[in-house]
Structure formats: structure tokens, C-alpha cells
Design goal:
- By secondary structure, the protein is an alpha+beta fold.
- The protein has two domains: 28-109, no CATH class; 114-177, no CATH class.
- It has helices at residues 24-38, 46-52, 96-103, 124-127, 152-175; strands at residues 14-15, 21-22, 81-85, 91-95, 118-121, 130-133, 137-139, 147-151.
- A two-stranded antiparallel ribbon has the order 1-2.
- A hairpin with a 7-residue loop joins strand 7 (137-139) and strand 8.
Length: 177
């Protein structure tokens, strides 16, 4: 039985410290609380977790079936359940894949509001970024969405600047001879 006070799970598959046993859910909750504390974010109470734990274990963004891992970040998969702190102060659950893409986006919480058939170009408008039609992006088969990370217009500008920088460097090398 789980040693967490109030937990009725019979699962003793996770051992944390010496003789303290937690079920998978309590271990996942402990990990999420510890991670929030380390990151300096709001640390929900155990009762909040128990009251709000998703029954269907589906990610609110991509509807993937989320799993609980017990080995910390090293054993986490993209469908591992994570704690999400929204900019408005709310807290919820989502899969690690959605949480990671959200955290790395200039759009922040708005990254999930990009319309279908569109994509965000972070380089557009001098780095401010802009949501554009997917047709304005080049093809990149190695990416999940099959498109380049920046639009064709921005890629062209970057390539042009790199070419000009390289040309100047070559001219300087020739002049130095």
C-alpha cells in the first residue's frame, strides 16, 4: 500500500527514500510539486492534485493519452503528464510534448490558438514574429509538421545576409594578401 497519507492505492511499485513507498500517481504528484518548487512557481497542494487529477488522462491540447513516469526527467516521454502554469495564474495538466512546445514558443500561452493551416514565424517583423499561412513556409521533412521553422521570406533574408557576410569576409581575405 502507498505510504502517502490518505492514499488508498495498493500499488507499492515505487520506492523513494529508504522505506517510504509511493504509488505511481503519488510519486508523479511529488515530482511535479518538487519541480514547481525548484522552478520558483506556485506549488499546488496535495489536495489540489487529488481533486483535479484527470480521470481520462487525456492531454487538453492534443488529446494524447498521458502516462505517469517515476524516474524523473530522464525517463520522461512526450506523453508524460506534466503540470502547466498558465500566465493568468491557473494551473492544469498537459503532456510533456505540448508543455515543451509551449515553453519554447515566443507566443507563450497563445501558441495553442494558432488557426489550422497556419504557423508562427518567429523571425518575421524584425523578430517580433507573426502567424502566417502554412503555404508561406518551405518544406522540411525532418520536422513534425513537415515545414521549415521560419517562412520563405525570412529564410531568404537570412540567406542573403549570410551570403553578403561571407562575400565581405572573402574580399577582406583577398585584400590582406
Amino acid at each position: 500500500m502507498c505510504d502517502r497519507r490518505g492514499c488508498t492505492s495498493e500499488d507499492r511499485s515505487c520506492r523513494i527514500i529508504s522505506k517510504v513507498y509511493y504509488c505511481k500517481r503519488c510519486r508523479a504528484i511529488k515530482n511535479m510539486r518538487d519541480n514547481a518548487k525548484r522552478a520558483g512557481k506556485k506549488q499546488p497542494t496535495w489536495q489540489w492534485f487529488l481533486d483535479n487529477w484527470p480521470n481520462n488522462m487525456l492531454c487538453i491540447v492534443c488529446n494524447v493519452n498521458m502516462i505517469m513516469t517515476t524516474g524523473g526527467n530522464k525517463s520522461a516521454n512526450s506523453n508524460t503528464i506534466t503540470l502547466q502554469h498558465w500566465n493568468n495564474g491557473d494551473i492544469g495538466f498537459m503532456c510533456l510534448g505540448c508543455n515543451s512546445s509551449h515553453g519554447g514558443s515566443k507566443l507563450g500561452d497563445d501558441c495553442f490558438d494558432v488557426p489550422s493551416g497556419c504557423k508562427f514565424c518567429p523571425s518575421h517583423d524584425s523578430g517580433a514574429g507573426k502567424i502566417l499561412s502554412a503555404g508561406t513556409f518551405g518544406i522540411c521533412r525532418s520536422r513534425k509538421d513537415g515545414l521549415q521553422s521560419i517562412c520563405k521570406e525570412c529564410k531568404s533574408e537570412i540567406d542573403k545576409q549570410r551570403w553578403l557576410d561571407g562575400k565581405t569576409t572573402k574580399q577582406q581575405r583577398l585584400a590582406a594578401r
